[in-house]
Amino acid sequence: AAPRARAPKKPASAPAPGAEPALDGRVRAVVDAVLPSIDAGRFAAKALVGVPFEVTAHVFADGHDVVRAMLCWWNDNGGDTDGAATEAPLQAVEMTALGNDVWHAALVPAAPGRLRYRVLAWVDHFRSWRTELQRRVDADDIRLAALAGAALADQAAVRALAGPSPADADAGALRAWAEALHRRAAPAGGADIDIDAVKALALDGRIAAAADRHPDRHLQARSEPLPLVVDRARAGFSAWYELFPRSAGDTPGRHGTFRDVIARLPYIAAMGFDVLYLPPIHPIGRAKRKGRNNALAAEADDVGSPWAIGASEGGHTEILPALGTADDLRALVAAAREHGLELALDIAFQCAPDHPWVAQHPAWFRRRPDGSVQYAENPPKKYQDIYPFDFETDDWRALWAALKGVFDHWIGQGVAIFRVDNPHTKAFPFWAWCIDAIKREHAGVLFLAEAFTRPKVMHRLAKLGFSQSYTYFTWRRSKQELTEYFTELYATPGRDYFRPNVWPNTPDILNDQLHAAPRPVFMTRLLLAATLSPNYGIYGPAFELMERTPRNPGSEEYLDSEKYQLRHWSLDAPDTLAGFIAQVNQARHAHAALQGGAELRFFPTDNDALLAYGRRSADGASAVIGVVNLDPRLTQSGWVDVDAAWLGLGDAPTFEVDDLLSGRTFTWRGGGNFVILDPADMPAHLLHARAGAPGMRP
Amino acid sequence: AAPRARAPKKPASAPAPGAEPALDGRVRAVVDAVLPSIDAGRFAAKALVGVPFEVTAHVFADGHDVVRAMLCWWNDNGGDTDGAATEAPLQAVEMTALGNDVWHAALVPAAPGRLRYRVLAWVDHFRSWRTELQRRVDADDIRLAALAGAALADQAAVRALAGPSPADADAGALRAWAEALHRRAAPAGGADIDIDAVKALALDGRIAAAADRHPDRHLQARSEPLPLVVDRARAGFSAWYELFPRSAGDTPGRHGTFRDVIARLPYIAAMGFDVLYLPPIHPIGRAKRKGRNNALAAEADDVGSPWAIGASEGGHTEILPALGTADDLRALVAAAREHGLELALDIAFQCAPDHPWVAQHPAWFRRRPDGSVQYAENPPKKYQDIYPFDFETDDWRALWAALKGVFDHWIGQGVAIFRVDNPHTKAFPFWAWCIDAIKREHAGVLFLAEAFTRPKVMHRLAKLGFSQSYTYFTWRRSKQELTEYFTELYATPGRDYFRPNVWPNTPDILNDQLHAAPRPVFMTRLLLAATLSPNYGIYGPAFELMERTPRNPGSEEYLDSEKYQLRHWSLDAPDTLAGFIAQVNQARHAHAALQGGAELRFFPTDNDALLAYGRRSADGASAVIGVVNLDPRLTQSGWVDVDAAWLGLGDAPTFEVDDLLSGRTFTWRGGGNFVILDPADMPAHLLHARAGAPGMRP
Predict the structure, then answer these.
(1) Residue closest to B76 by CA, chosen among B596, B439, B429
(2) Confidence bin at B696 (pLDDT 50/70/90)
(3) Residue B687's CB: how many other CB atoms inside 10 A?
(4) Quick check: B31 pLDDT over 90?
(5) pLDDT at B653 > cutoff 90
(6) Residue B77 pLDDT more than 80?
(7) Smallest Cα distance from A621 to chain B, Å
(8) Whole-angstrom Cα distance, residue A677 to residue B381?
(9) What is the DSSP letter of B89?
(10) For residue A228, which phi and psi values (nearest 5 degrees)?
């Protein structure tokens, strides 16, 4: 089907203009402030398979009657009709009142896909009747109330028998009780009434439960359905390893291949990574090709930048011949899977001047007044080797279809994760349409937005559907910066749709704190990334081999960057961080507190060089404490207070913790833990409160 | 027309289900987070005639192009079609960027009524072109850019001449400039180019301004229209005086009348009040009538509670004969207006057992199993003299029409302000429909919600349309309580729809801080109400005469309450607060900082008995400082810091302030003002920074 821009998504039950229904004015219950809600349902919230999706709402009614509420969800069939209005929900769970008219429930998604959720609420006459009865003291009032209750029970019995699966037992119990209550409250022949017995019978808890199962919901209030995207677990918990396949060969100077990457897989898997991410694998433009260290002119043997996409061999759906064939790629996908790794490809929507599309689709590019194609520029800087697409072209439908086709092609090759290069320089409506269309066909496909730009723009991309997003982590170093930034990342409403993926380095970012930095800097940056965020990644082997020389002082570019040349890496360097990384990734896999849906809280320390924080799993059963010495040169010590209750450690005065880095065991308490960390030894604690430790929640 | 429940209000431009339009995918600008927005446009924000209505939005586009944005609004015709989509706006103003992609504009409503507002934004090619040109250094680039700019100007000239009022001058200037630019950048015969002259001409500021006036908006993004209710100024600035007309007579024991109230008007007007509010004026039920001090049985001469509405003489549209006739009421309305006072009536939707509707409309009331009408109760308490309406009745349309008819009747008598009794015990959909229907017919009618209930319920009523709301002020006494509560009341999103009306006392609430309280307590409670909130009221003459005896110790009921009996008040009591109240109301009328739309900020003091705060008008031109000694018995002193910049007092080291209570003048500064307040003298300062005082904004 030809692409169409996605209209602002309205809850599908919105009444058509001119067709405002005469709602039933007797609906007294109110549902308000259903959360999560991303821009009132304009965008989908995000959830993970197997992780409870928590919903709160304001629910109340006029007066003093008792209300009840349900959280329900439905499959989103993608159509314009509102299944949520008429069909039976996929799941439904009764909500509980938290106080102050705030109600709560959680549902656990079972499979990836799109859902709609809404809250239903009603004034419950049986519950209201029972609540009033409990407070009644006047005999005549109790007698009349008993008769009213009997009538309510008879009505509940009728409802119990209606519908597709009649509840005969409930109906029978309700009817028998109604009869007994009537007999006692209005005995034949005007016999004496035992009012205490009437009240006791009327308050029978089993009958109340039976009535609860068959409520009168015909005057039910319903919130507008809100959209939810459920992703597979990897969207919420992943460790990425970025690698240039052309540098993966075992012989210096030889162009690496996908087969070389296959040989490298055991090394990567041993470090515990989940995602293997490759920069663009397509033919590289020859026109205006850049040389080593971004030189304007390339030498004859220069390999060029993988992001200068397209040459005579083809464009975004072709493979650079030097890397191998489509068969080789599929072999890599399969071999990676055997090593517990999933392949991610880089999608960069831009063309080298010799990309076939430049000649085939002149309308997709802007022209300068001299007729030449407009290259990318940010005056006075010029990027003559890159042609951006013109998203204002009249031929936008064909352009959109072609770009989506790029994803479709690689999905066909077994790839299900895409890292998207600079999505913020492409029109936003395209992403909304493209990601939604792909995920409706392949619910498991994930997209990582590489947009290092302004906050509102990054958030917009996440709202439009990107599964994960790069962050500012690389530039957040101090205790205060880290505390503020991660507190923000875990706060609503952002956390309902923006999943951070944090990187200590990338091929584009050798932050100056890594320039000629000592080993503890690399260790702490890795540990912070891996334990503050459930999604993180490194660009290797540059990272584990502590590549740390910038092209120029103060530059964030690597000297002799792989972006422009082949490199050969000595993986067996004695000071490699591979072992440390393996230890950290092992801790991540072993403890739910470091996985998807886990929460974060910072803890006070009396030393600004010591950053302390807690993580706990969504179900509260797993807890980990991190304490990091941010000073890479000096031993630092201080006192750390932790929130033991928040960590689920109960109120025992002390608890045992295992250090997942040193293997040592300590006795900790809520307030006043002395910590001393020598960076030359190990710059951090990563403490796990053992299951079964005193005070630990079972 | 028969009432219908109001459907959840969708922005009228919502595409109909099944009719999702193929939007233009080339729209690159984004408008997000338009504020104020009450539940994403489900409810209307509130504004005041003459007070700037401030709107912010997130506006941006992909890439680096320059965006522009407009705030526009339209009359809301009440139909289901979206005038805002196609018609020319009533007003439009260009927004300005505040940084971080947040944009701002304000519009000043000219008349009461319903509006819709939305933000429009577009990628501005002329501005983008000019911004890039400013940074260009390469001669060839400048030459090509000049040619591109000339083409853009020619297009702008075409737009200048299109539409209903062609801008000939702009079109001429743009064309002439385009021609000159072309001539200089591409001279005939290949003559030499003066590139600096080309750039200087290209950057002509007057041409940029002309191009700005005729932007290319064909790929414009539009936010969904949001509803706004504009009220007359009184909705945002009012001092209420509540009085029982039956106690307004000059002779003890004689039932007061509307004519007696007319005689009382000069007294009330002299105190500076704006609204005179009367408890229900209808026939009072005789069945189950309550006696003095809420006695279960009334004596023969007991007058009953005005809230027990309806008797053989009639119900909600009749006047208690003892008060006078409809002519007398209209005379009172007119006489009040001559004294600068507006009459407000109390609407209490409940019936005495002998209300005519009980017999005429049995379906509007619930029955008990013995066939009797269900009276109000909150077990074990019973209110046999009050029959609530059953809002779940099948006859709800007739009930709704009759209740709206009550308002319509009194509007017909010249009343335009209603204080609604316990609206939270009536179905919410009724209020949404009723208030909207009335305000569409009479935009100036105002409703005050008397709902002393849970926060979410009170906020719901305000969202549904109530113009003002009672608050918890009566129970907020300490510096911390007052600071927290008023900070909350002035915070978004509440302040966009919830207008507090604060009362130191009501006939139902003699808070225990007033029990046997000394005069300074009454003074400070009055002053706090009148200067912390633009809307406030008192129940008099009980308040100014310092009536302070509860029915029982700890009760909030007055002894010998006017709710159940006639009272005679000695208005000339020597210690009356009438003079003080007049002084405070005079200050309110004289200074915009105490009026509608004004802001509030609390200031630090080093003494918890001293509460200090600033008010400033919406336009920043008027500022007032309050300092209140909350200790009614002891002299208190301390240091007060004020935020002089926020108050608009500039950065002069000192400024002169006039005390509007004592008439004295002081020299103040930002930090470190010594204050000493003897409650026996005057328990507060109310300081006005004189216009023309050093540092005062002109």
Answers:
(1) B439
(2) very low
(3) 28
(4) yes
(5) no
(6) no
(7) 33
(8) 67
(9) P
(10) -140, 130
Residue A329 and residue A354 in contact, taking contact as beta carbons nearer than 8 Å: no
- Any idea which of A162-166, A554-558, A658-662, B463-467 has the lowest mean pLDDT? A162-166
Contacts of A362 (CB under 8 A, 6+ apart): none
> Has B421 been annotated as catalytic?
yes
What's the whole-number mean pLDDT along residues B548-553? 96
Nearest-by-CA chain A residue for B366: A148
Contacts with A34 from chain B: Cβ below 8 Å: none
> Tell me, what's the pLDDT at B81?
47
Residue with tokens 């944090």: A502
Give the number of A-B residue pairs with CB atoms closer than 8 Å.
212
Tokens of B563: 């709710």
Distance CA A531, CA A595 (A): 9
Report the greatest alpha carbon distance in chain A.
113
Cα–chain center distance at B511: 26
Task: Please give the average per-residue pLDDT across B129-152, as a whole number.
Answer: 95
Say if residue B19's pLDDT is above 50. Answer: no
The strand pair at A45-48 and A226-231 is best described as: parallel
- The CA distance from A101 to the nearest CA of chain B, in Å, is 7
Per-residue pLDDT tens over the stretch B466-483: 999 999 999 999 999 999
pLDDT above 80 (res B5)? no
- C-beta separation of A561 from A279 below 8 A: no
| Number of H-type helices and E-type strands within chain B | 15, 28
ipTM above 0.90, yes or no: yes
Helix axes B195-202, B168-185, angle to 10 degrees: 160
Which tokens go with A459? 């958030």
Residue type, A241: Y
The separation between the first and the last C-alpha atoms of chain A, rounded to the nearest angstrom, is 53
Q: Which residues pair with A105 in a beta bridge?
A: A55
How close is the nearest chain B Cα to the Cα of A331, in Å? 37
Contact A7 B23 (CB under 8 A): yes
pLDDT of res. B692: 52
Q: What is the largest CA-CA distance in chain B?
A: 113
Retrieve residue A273's tokens: 């990574």
Percentage helix, strand, coil for chain A under 3-state DSSP, each rounded to 5 = 30, 25, 45
Q: Render pLDDT for A185-239 as a digit per residue (tens, 0 to 9).
A: 999 888 889 999 999 999 999 999 999 999 999 999 999 999 999 999 999 999 9
Kindly give the pairing relationship between strand B29-35 and strand B45-48.
unpaired
Question: Residue A400: helix, strand or coil by DSSP?
Answer: helix
Tokens of residue B261, six digits? 């109230």
pLDDT in tens, A584-639: 999 999 999 999 999 999 999 999 999 999 999 988 899 999 999 999 999 999 99
Question: What is A128-142 written as a DSSP string?
Answer: HHHHHHHH---HHHH
What distance in Å separates the CA atoms of residue B533 and residue B523, rounded to the nearest whole number? 16
Distance CA(A688)–CA(A661), nearest Å, equals 10
User: What residue type is B169 in one-letter code?
Assistant: A
Residue B17 pLDDT > 60: no
Helix (H, G, I), strand (E, B) or coil at A65: coil
B283 CB-contact burial (10 Å; exposed 0-12 / middle 13-18 / buried 19+) = buried
B253's tokens = 């024991």
Closest CB to B137 among A20, A23, A380? A380
* Subunit contact B5:A12, Cβ cutoff 8 A: no
Are A147 and B8 within 8 A, CB to CB?
A: no
> How confident is the prediction for chain B on average, in pLDDT?
93
């009591």: which residue's tokens?
B573
**541-600 of A, contacting B, C-beta below 8 A:** none
Predicted model pTM: 0.93
Q: Does B383 touch chain A (CB under 8 A)?
A: no
Q: What is the DSSP letter of A5?
A: B
